[in-house]
């Protein structure tokens, strides 16, 4: 039975309590943001790069820092579950969706430059920030020209590629904590490591990031970005929905090589497939479910562990409920 049917059944026995509570929460969210920024029972597959995921009870897209703070405070007061979605690029949402409030910061996209300092809001794509840096003849973000995630997501996991990573250029950030307080943090307060930060452990919501870059020559910066873009487009399966690179690089190995040597390339469960183009990617080849996608991840991990004794740690985050 799906969620809507369950609510209907509950209403038969409990009057209008569930609907009234839903209406109550929707109105409170609209009062904080606006009607256009509040969606009820929204399919999250429309908001993830994998095209996977069930419904969110409430999907909210705030437009100001103050709105983000107020939504967090509302969730605390009402004791309702709260989830930050990001832009859905390095994420798998399960088929049962997500209960409570889901926040997407896709409308916080400002990018500003002052000399060699760039300030980008968390909903901006890190690709667009790197392109803005190119336009200002600023070097340091070339590595990010092929990373599909948002600025917030890039800080969340200390995103990197081709020898560069966020911690190399990050100066500071503004976040909201679990209580809805606004905090200004220096980069060294985030404990940035390989594909890791303390942002999830502290429950921070990134609102903006300040990058310290260097003056460079446009042609040299562009040549580097063109080269990295070619490498990405020629090696990665961009023609299918995916979450990007599924696994972290295990010490002393390459995840894709281990998967390929395990003869898993092309392996398929339902509509999910280990990419024929790059074994480190799992693609949604034909209307996969989240369960199929996750089952294939586990199958790859088990096979590599059995054959090589290496534990493949997921880079992608999995959230939500099973059906």
From TrEMBL:
Cofactor(s) listed: FAD
Cell location: Cytoplasm
Record GO terms (molecular function): UDP-N-acetylmuramate dehydrogenase activity
Keyword Lyase: no
Primary role: Cell wall formation.
Family: Belongs to the MurB family.
Protein name per UniProt: UDP-N-acetylenolpyruvoylglucosamine reductase
Organism: Virgibacillus natechei
């Amino acid at each position: 039975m799906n969620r809507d049917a369950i609510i209907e059944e509950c209403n038969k026995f409990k009057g209008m309590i569930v609907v009234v509570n839903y209406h109550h929460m929707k109105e409170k969210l609209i009062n904080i943001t606006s009607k256009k920024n509040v969606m009820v029972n929204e399919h999250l597959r429309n908001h993830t790069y994998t095209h996977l995921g069930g419904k969110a009870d409430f999907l909210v897209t705030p437009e100001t820092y103050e709105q983000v703070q107020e939504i967090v405070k509302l969730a605390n007061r009402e004791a309702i579950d709260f989830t930050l979605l990001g832009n859905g690029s390095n994420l798998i949402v399960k088929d049962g969706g997500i209960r409570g409030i889901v926040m997407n910061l896709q409308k916080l996209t400002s990018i500003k430059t002052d000399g060699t300092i760039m300030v980008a809001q968390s909903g901006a794509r890190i690709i667009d920030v790197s392109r803005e840096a190119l336009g200002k003849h600023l070097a340091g973000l070339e590595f990010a020209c092929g990373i599909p995630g948002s600025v917030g997501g890039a800080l969340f996991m200390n995103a990197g590629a081709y020898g560069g990573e966020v911690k190399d250029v990050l100066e500071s950030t503004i976040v909201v904590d679990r209580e809805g307080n606004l905090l200004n943090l220096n980069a060294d307060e985030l404990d940035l490591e390989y594909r890791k930060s303390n942002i999830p452990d502290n429950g921070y919501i990134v609102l903006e990031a300040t990058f310290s870059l260097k003056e460079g020559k446009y042609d040299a910066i562009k040549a580097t970005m063109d080269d990295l873009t070619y490498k990405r487009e020629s090696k990665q399966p961009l023609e299918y929905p995916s979450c990007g690179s599924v696994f972290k690089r295990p010490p002393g190995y390459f995840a894709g090589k281990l998967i390929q040597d395990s003869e898993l390339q092309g392996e398929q469960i339902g509509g999910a497939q280990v990419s024929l183009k790059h074994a480190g990617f799992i693609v949604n080849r034909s209307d996969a479910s989240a369960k199929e996608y996750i089952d294939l991840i586990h199958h790859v991990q088990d096979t590599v562990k059995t054959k090589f004794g290496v534990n493949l740690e997921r880079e992608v985050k999995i959230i939500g409920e099973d059906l």
